[in-house]
Amino acid sequence: MKLSEHYTRTSIYSTLMVLLAGAVIYYFAIxxxxxxxxxxxxxxxxxxAEEYVRSSNQDPQQYDLDKDHAxxxxxxxxxxxxxxxxxxxxxxxxxxxxxxxxxxxxxxLKDTGYKVIITISRAGQKYLxxxxxxxxxxxxxxxxxVLFISNKYFLNGLWKPFQLxxxxxxxxxxxxxDQFKGKPSKVDEFAELNKxxxxxxxxxxxxxxxxxxxxxxxxxxxxxxxAVVTTKLDTLIQxxxxxxxxxxQITDIYSSINKSSRLNQSLLLLAKLENKLIADExxxxxxxxxxxxxxxxxxxxxxxxxSFKHNLQAKQVLASKYLIDIxxxxxxxxxxxxxxxxxVIIIELNGEQLxxxxxxxxxxxxxxxxxERFQKGKDSQGTGLGLTLVKNICQHYGYIIHYYYExxxxxxxxxx
Length: 416
Known about the structure:
With 416 residues, this protein is α+β, with helices and mostly antiparallel strands. Helices cover 55% and strands 20% of the residues. It folds into 3 domains: 3-133, no CATH class; 188-274; 282-415, Histidine kinase-like ATPase, C-terminal domain (Heat Shock Protein 90, 2-Layer Sandwich). It has a 5-stranded antiparallel sheet. A 5-stranded mixed sheet has the order 7-9-10-12-11. The longest helix has 54 residues, at 3-56. The chain crosses the membrane at residues 12-30, 127-149.
């Protein structure tokens, strides 16, 4: 969820809670004020009723005045607690029952006591409270609507510099000449963020260029003497005067030099992958490439009496032909090198995944360490970077590489 949505949700929830609490308090406050006003009116009517009783010098009778309704009941009580209460009564003018507010008190006439109950209509008050409640709820809904619209649409303009900065960060390539610039903003926090990112990008680019220059120089300085040594060894191997022991020693040196050269190239390729410096992507028919690879490795397969089984469906990927070639070479080499004599390699390809399965050792490899650098078996003659390259190439294209062992079969599965 985006930050603006979090802010909108939090703002609306907090505002809604405050407004609802305020509306409830406002409702009861209005109700209380209206009730106090009715009670004051009843008190005035009660005073008038007492004067009416004292001035009449006879038994008081029930009477109605406007919407006021008074009832006199003879009683033997000489003390009665005055009270105000809500009730209903029949309004003779409207000819219907209405909600009312009443007061009850004791009125004395000579030696006789009368309980007087005066009732006044609450219809007007009730209607007024309903109108005020409806207006309040309407204002509440309107305010929430305005708040939602302003947060959702108007605040998008406020976050636009941040979104542009984020977009530029995603498009930032350390190898590009153009540096991060950032979009100007009147918001101090965004301007400060752009400044910090700009300074960081300059430091990162500077460090990258230094590292790249060092790597290229080191690679060049390593490859030059290796090439010279290889040339000298080629010349020595052709010397017919060499003994078998000397020839064997030169062959070992030659093998070590080739291994050093492959190691150097693998490390350079890993550095390029980690810095995303390979971007020559073209459509590749993976089923066709796999068929070609099986032919290329056929001679090596025969040396260990291995056989291929395959089920290839059409699958096209957008990738670098160079990287796909390296990925498949390493997977094929791994399946052949670690296979047992007379074993089988099964290759399956469909629209979702590629799996390369081979027979071999009767125990599982370490799934956590198998893709780490320089992790290899004791008898392995490789550089220990083959599967690391496979993993990094998969990460480069967003593929998922997984290894598992089951019933004597070692399987590498690549999910697109």
